[in-house]
Each structure stands twice: as C-alpha cells, then as structure tokens.
Specification:
Layout (H helix, E strand, L loop, with lengths): L8 H9 L4 E4 L3 E4 L6 E3 L2 E3 L5 H29 L6 H22 L4 H21 L12 H29 L11 H50 L5 H42 L5
Helix pairs in contact: 1-6, 2-3, 2-4, 3-4, 3-7, 4-7, 5-6, 5-7, 6-7
C-alpha cells in the first residue's frame, strides 16, 4: 500500500489469496516469474506460464517426497539393525500406517484397499503440506485455488469410476446408473430404473464437485478471516494510543485463529482422503 493511499481491506485480501506471476517477499523484494507465450489450439488458449501457486505446488511435492523418502530410509536402517524405528522415522511410520490401515483399507476393504492405499495416502500428505505452506509468511495456499482442488477431485473421480468399472465389469457398472428395482412388476421396475438413472448419474458428478468446493471453501475462508482481522489494525492505525490496544487485541485473536487453522489444515486433508476412500469403497459393490 502506497503512503497516503486509502487502505482497501478487500483489495488486500484478494491480493494475498489470489494467484499471480510474482513471489512477494516484502520488504526484501519481489521475484517476477517468467511469462511465456500462450499455446493456441484452435479456439483454445493454454497458458503454461508458472505462477505463485504452481511454484508452491511444486514445492509441496518436493517436501512430501523428501519427508517420506527420509522416513523410508530411517525405517529401513532400523530394520537392518534389528530394532524398531524411533524418532522422526518412527512417528512418520505410525502416521503413514494410520492413513493406510484406518483411512484407506478400512473404508475400501481388505481386498482392494491395498491397491488404492498409495493414492489415498498421497492425497492426504500432499494436501496437508499444501495447507500448512499457506500459513507461512510470504506464502499462499494452493488449496485456495479452484484449479488445484478441481484437479485433485478429477483424479479422485477417475479412480472412483474406473476402479468401479474394473471391479464390477461393464454390466455391473451400468447397474450403478440403472439400479435394479426389487418388489415391482417388470415393466414398472424398468421404468423406475430409467427414471432413477439421471439422479444416479448426477450423484457421480456431485462427488468430485463436493471434494473440490469443500477443500477450496474451508481453506479460503480461514485466510479471509485472518487477513480481515489483520486489516483491522491498518484501518484503525490513526487512532493513536488506542490503536495499540486494538492491535494487541487483534493479534491475540489472530493467534487463536492461526492455531485453529493448523487444525483445519489437517482436518481438510483427512476429510478429502477419507471421502475419496469411502467413494472408492462404495463403487466396489453394485448395491
């Protein structure tokens, strides 16, 4: 905000939560990301230029890989030494096993659960690290971008539907769209099944939509609250001594919200992974 310029809290919030081609490290400076020429395919225009959220997504992947690779090395060393893993490796192993056994296999089933467990675990740790990155100074939350949450939901959608078709076969999969109706005459049962088909088809599309909006909404809302509270300090900065009291009270509230956001970051990663596992498990059975 320029000196003498009127403070606009809405502009400040959208500036810090939105995506851009810059990495801002105020007051140290700004890194301008390269902007490439868009690719034109007919009427479609694709811009592959890196943005702030793209950089953070790549950083998230690097952090997740490093943490889990370090865990695997520590666990392997402990096993070769004939002892149980301890410290960081032991804690991470317990964490990974909890997600695998309770979240993935517990909801998908012991038959197909191990096959989908790596996907569910990847969702959990990737979203968790992405959410936590957004709480760091000069950072932003990739999960506050609909393109990011939509891409994850699309991957989940493909796993759910393709996994269901693979397990049930084409005929069994079509029964999830045209459900058999028991207790009715044959003609009425067929008519009711056809009538239910649009509802069943829409229910398939609602699942990825819910995954997309839930993660995006919860992470964006938390940052809006934090930034709005910070904005109060600037709005009342001209009140002299009273502004110190306002700033102190606001800082305490923001601290409480930040602690809550740490919990929300973990919960949203858990909910996304859990719902993905539940939806995959439901599609493994015709009923």
């Amino acid at each position: 905000m320029m000196q003498g310029q009127e403070f606009n809290i809405g502009e400040m919030i959208f500036h810090h939560t939105g995506d851009s081609h810059e990495l801002e490290f105020e007051p140290f400076g700004t890194i301008h990301l390269p902007e490439w020429q868009p690719i034109h395919i007919g009427s479609l225009t694709i811009d592959l230029s890196p943005t702030k959220h793209v950089v953070l997504i790549m950083l998230t992947g690097l952090i997740v890989y490093t943490l889990l690779k370090a865990t695997a090395i520590g666990v392997e060393r402990a096993r070769k030494a004939g002892r149980a893993p301890h410290g960081f490796s032991g804690a991470m192993e317990a964490f990974v096993l909890w997600v695998r056994q309770d979240v993935a296999i517990g909801n998908i089933g012991h038959e197909m659960g191990p096959r989908y467990a790596p996907l569910v675990m990847s969702f959990f740790f990737f979203i968790l690290v992405a959410n936590l990155l957004g709480l760091l100074p000069w950072s932003s939350t990739p999960s506050g971008n609909l393109a990011f949450t939509g891409a994850l939901a699309l991957i989940a959608f493909v796993a759910i539907e393709v996994g269901g078709m693979t397990k049930l076969g084409f005929k069994g999969y079509m029964r999830t769209i045209f459900p058999p109706i028991d207790g009715l005459p044959p003609g009425a049962a067929i008519a009711m099944s056809i009538f239910m088909a649009p509802i069943e088809f829409m229910s398939k599309l609602v699942k990825p939509f819910a995954l997309t909006v839930r993660l995006f909404g919860n992470m964006t809302a938390g940052h809006f609250v934090i930034l709005a509270l910070f904005g109060i300090v600037f709005m009342f900065g001209h009140f002299g001594v009273a502004s110190w009291g306002i700033g102190f009270a606001t800082a305490l509230v923001v601290l409480g919200v930040m602690i809550l956001e740490l919990v929300v970051a973990a919960i949203q990663a858990y909910v996304f992974a859990l719902l993905t596992a539940v939806f995959i498990g439901l599609m493994q059975h015709e009923h």
